[in-house]
Amino acid sequence: MSASAQGIPFRANTIKALHDSALRAAMSNATETFAIKRADAVSAVPLEEWREHASSTRLQVLDNLSYYVDLFAKNATRAGAIVHRAKDAQGARDLIASILKDRGVERVVKSKSMVSEEIHLNDYLRREGITSVETDLGEYIIQVAGEGPSHIIVPAIHKNRRQVGELFAEKLRCEYSDDPMVLTAIAKKVLREEFLSAKAGFSGANFAAADSGSIVVFTNEGNGRMCTTLPPLHIALLSMEKMIPSLADLPTFMRLLPRSATGQILTSYTSIITGTRGPNESTGAKEMHIVILDNGRSQIVTGEYREMLKCIRCGACLNACPVYRSVGGHAYGATYPGPMGIVLTTLLDGMEKAHPLLDATTLCGACGDVCPVKVPLPRLLRRLREERVERGFTPTLEQQAMAGFGWAVKSGTLFSLGQKAAGVFLPIGSTLLKDGVLGRMPRPAAKTFTRRVS
Amino acid sequence: MRVQLFATCLIDTFYPGTGEATLKLLREFGVQVEVPKGQTCCGKPADSGGYSKEARKAAEHFISVFQGSDPIVIPSGSCASMVKNHYPTLFKDDGDMQKQAEAVAARTYELSQFLVHVLKVHEANLKGKGRITYHASCQLTRELGVREEPLMLLQALKGAEFVPLPQADRCCGFGGIFMAKLPEVSMAMADDKVDNILSTGADTVTGCDHGCLMNIADAVKRRGASVQVKHMAVVLAEGLT
To answer: Exposed/middle/buried for A387, CB within 10 Å: 0-12, 13-18, 19+?
Structure first.
């Protein structure tokens, strides 16, 4: 490697994942189910029209990002929320921890949020003496297991029900069951107590409507609503690109996101939260803080990869990706896996760390086909590979081979010499390297096609 | 009618029989075929690996070899898409080369595209045999939008039975350099493809890209299965006699 950084050990991670038969079966079943449900859910709707509209709305936001963030902040403040800006992960962690500590909060109930994973919030709060309890069932499962999410929508997608049963029996000291109803009831009983006693609730946001200062949270379990309405204090963390211009734009995304994610027509719960509890309202937090995270996004939005910020985190590209389906999310060694994860991780964490992830695509294009907001993922992935080469993050041997290719490809004579050399070296190479790529190539023909016809 | 044939480096090096089948097929339908001398590789492996400088060298060479105005026929979806879709982008900063690239792109056809849209081969009296299934390769399907043409050709084969492949357009795991960089994942994906192929009970699997077919043939061999892996040109040419 010419640019020394080793980066995420993606290949080693994939080998480990491929040996885990339970993981492979769970991944294959779940992603296939979601992909089929998605295809059904979009089959009878004017999908292209919706995608085009959603994409242009997201672009409109990115073109005027600071305007919409300011507008949102102004309107959310007017509605009673306290709005904070965080430049980076540490800034956001400090803000959230100090809000909680200043109010003596030791336990917080938490609705699922990928941005909180991005800033590793739970670990930080734990070090600060604050316990955060994940209340989305999948997040709860992986929190009990001490793992991170392996899918941005379905965090415990890599586990089957027997594994969840064993996990609960061991960690929660309950009787083993692999019945999802029983397991859900166990979690519900624990979480209900947490909801009722929590002094603070935490959530992310799927969208933030600039014209009203509202945050919008989609959940399927109702836990998001509990977190944001039962405790007296609500802290919401959102990355700055979650803006939509107006609540009037929400229906487009309400239709597209769940269809793309799980094939649902709508999510079970759509919460629109505008500021604190009003004088005549019976629910809602009395104190609301909104933390808007930048973490590199104001830079990304000015560059050639800006369209990545159109992403609405539906996970459709994960379910469609043949690499993700084969190895699952943990292999990526990053917060965001799959095609959108490769791009976002490289942009957020840098090429030094993320360059091996750029191998994790065949550029098959399946991700681009399913993206509800038309993020040109195959083009961004290819361009990042180009940048990886330009910045010297590919192996020296590969660089030399490609330079040789570039030299030989310009001449029919040189190229046929190369073909002759392949005729000699490929069979030898394939005997020596049975497990490598050469072992899987056929032997070159004794006489090439072009020589046969010349 | 005259065409220029780009055999592709994989067919030239490893599968000359597919090149000959393509020639036979085109000639049978009255086409005069020129195989321009000095042709090498379209540059796809460099391009998808991010080596744009080397990909541009391949593209420049291709453009210099394929002069004239005859249609260019390519028996590979990924190479045809390289020429049609990626060449013009490679020269986005070079107006003159971009014009030449666009001109070459405009007269380039993937083989099944040419057989159906220009020669109407699917309306001819084609023969076939056995149970045939079809792998829809990625660039052919998603970049060129060639979804129906191969099926039209296979369904026209009298005496053969076409059986649809489950998840036909799922990537087989070839992916050019992908196969070399993540061989374990590549093999796992090819194994999934073979599972689907075997589930159809077909005795032959065909496709329009030798990269995929090479990867699939390797997985079939590892499995010890007897299903034959043949390029579309070979399947069609076999029905001519």
So the answer is: middle
pLDDT in tens, B142-187: 999 999 999 999 999 999 999 999 999 999 999 988 999 999 999 9
**CB contacts, 8 Å: A410 with chain B:** 40, 57-58, 60-61
Tens of pLDDT, residue by residue over A278-335, are 988 888 999 999 999 999 999 999 999 999 999 999 999 999 999 999 999 999 999 9
Q: How far is CA A429 from the centre of its chain?
A: 40
Neighbouring-strand partners of residue A218: A270
- pLDDT of amino acid A1: 46
Tell whether A368 and A248 lie within a shared domain. no
B20 and A449 in contact by Cβ < 8 A? yes
Residue A48 inside a domain? The answer is: no
CB A314 within 8 A of CB A78: no
Average confidence (pLDDT) over A56-85: 98
- Residue A346 CB neighbours (<10 A): 24
Count of domains observed in chain A: 3
Q: Which residue range is the domain that position A375 belongs to?
A: 10-34+315-390
The residue assigned the tokens 């049609």 is B84
- How high is the ipTM of this complex? 0.96
Which residues in chain A have Cβ-Cβ distances shorter than 8 Å to B215?
Answer: 440
Structural domain boundaries in chain B? 2-116, 122-238
Domain harbouring A248, CATH code: 3.40.50.10420
The domain boundary, picked from A269, A298, A327, lies at A298
CATH class entry, domain B122-238: mainly alpha
